[in-house]
Amino acid sequence: RRFGTKCTACQQGIPPTQVVRKAQDFVYHLHCFSCIICSRQLATGDEFYLMEDGRLVCKEDYETAKQNDDSEAGAKRPRTTITAKQLETLKNAYKNSPKPARHVREQLSSETGLDMRVVQV
User: Can you give the pLDDT at residue 79?
Assistant: First the structure.
C-alpha cells in the first residue's frame, strides 16, 4: 500500500490486478481517466491534453478554453481621453512635485475626474 502504484488523479493505491490507463509516466484508474472540466471518461484513441500536474483535459474543452483566453486577451479597455483643462491641471501639479504623494494624487483624481491609475501614469 505504502510503496505501490498510486492513481495520479485520486492518489489512491492501485492493486496489481486492476486494469489501468497510462499517459506518459502517469497511471490512472479507469474511472479516474477523465476530463477535469466536463468529467467525460476518456477512451482509447480519444485526443486529450495532459497538464503538467497530471490532470487531463479533453481536446474539445481545451480548445474552447484556449479560444476564451485568446478572446479575453484581445479585448483591451478603451483609451482614456484627457481634456486640455485636465492636462493643464496635471502639468501644474507635476511641475510643483514630480513625485506627488498618494493624497495629492487622490486630490488630482477627484479634481480632474480621472481614474487614480491615469493620474499616476
Answer: 75
